[in-house]
Amino acid sequence: METNPSDKPVKGKSPIQSKVSRYTKPDDTLVNVSGIQIGGSDIVIIAGPCAVESREQLFSTSRSVKAGGAAILRGGAFKPRSSPYNFQGMGEEGLKLLSEIRKETGLPIVTEVMDTRQVELVASYADMLQIGSRNMQNYPLLKEVGMSKKPVLLKRGMMATVEEFLMAAEYILSQGNGQIVLCERGIRTFETSTRNTLDLSAVPMLKRLTHLPVIIDPSHGTGLRWMVPPMAKASIAVGADGLIMEVHYKPEEALCDGFQSLSLDEFDLLMADMKKIAKAIGREIAVPKHATV
User: Fold this and answer.
1) Contact predicate 194/224, CB 8 Å
2) Residue 264 needs a FRET pair 20 to 30 A away by CA distance; which of 34, 46, 143, 162 works?
């Protein structure tokens, strides 16, 4: 996809007629995740633990983020880690726990799939499939989730350009699945004071170039719990369609990314502030669904 942000996105004028391009589809795409719509006027909050660690951890955290206003629950059953000796997730047992808490809370589930061999299994439990940063250019996996027809949360690669990010989405779209949400989660730069450099400028750029919804991950984008609230609020101000944040009932005991996970109280305070910012720009925070059972 050839990007030219100085030109107005007019249908039929793109040098390459890619499916992700706003030239090809001028109107915004709305992604439906089991009744929660991403890409409309409402800002969707996705929250939960980095990884499913135990029933107590998942259920306590999930109930709290639902009460705080999260509309979608995140939680990793399979976790890619830099070290092969770190906690890798609970696997299918974690998926079963996610399915169980969904029945109680009514929150749709987004969880990561890491391998083409996992897609069928994860899709049988999840409402939305997440492709992590490390797999953004895993083209066989992108094609496989494209064929699954489940909504996809695609995270930007840690060293990917905007164009490479959009071409990764194109792989999914090429298989007939247009239900894609793009997630800016920080890129690797020479700066070392934060885990990554959160590229908020990517939001208006992506929304100009593509019709797909764009959300922000301030947890991975900064790697620091105290930085998550200001960056989350800035994300709303810059036009993001949602946020995905890590929340843990006991961050100091987390097996994965506790240093960047909000506590339950911190999440509640942040939600109150974000509602004010959303209102100031003419938007609202999406309301979670009621449980059906």
Assistant:
1) yes
2) 34
Angle of helix 55-68 relative to helix 264-280, nearest 10 degrees?
Answer: 30
Look at residue 1 and tell me if it is in a domain. no
pTM of the entire predicted model = 0.92
Residue 62 lies in domain = 31-285
> What are 102's strand-pairing partners?
none
> What is d(CA 106, CA 289) in angstroms, rounded to the nearest whole number?
6
**Beta strands 128-131 and 152-155: pairing type?**
parallel
CATH assignment at residue 97: 3.20.20.70
pLDDT, tens digit, for every residue of 131-173? 999 999 999 999 999 999 899 999 999 999 999 999 999 999 9
Query: Per mean pLDDT, which range of 73-87, 97-111, 245-259, 267-281 is the poorest?
Result: 73-87
Which residues have CB under 8 Å from 12's CB, separation 6+? 23
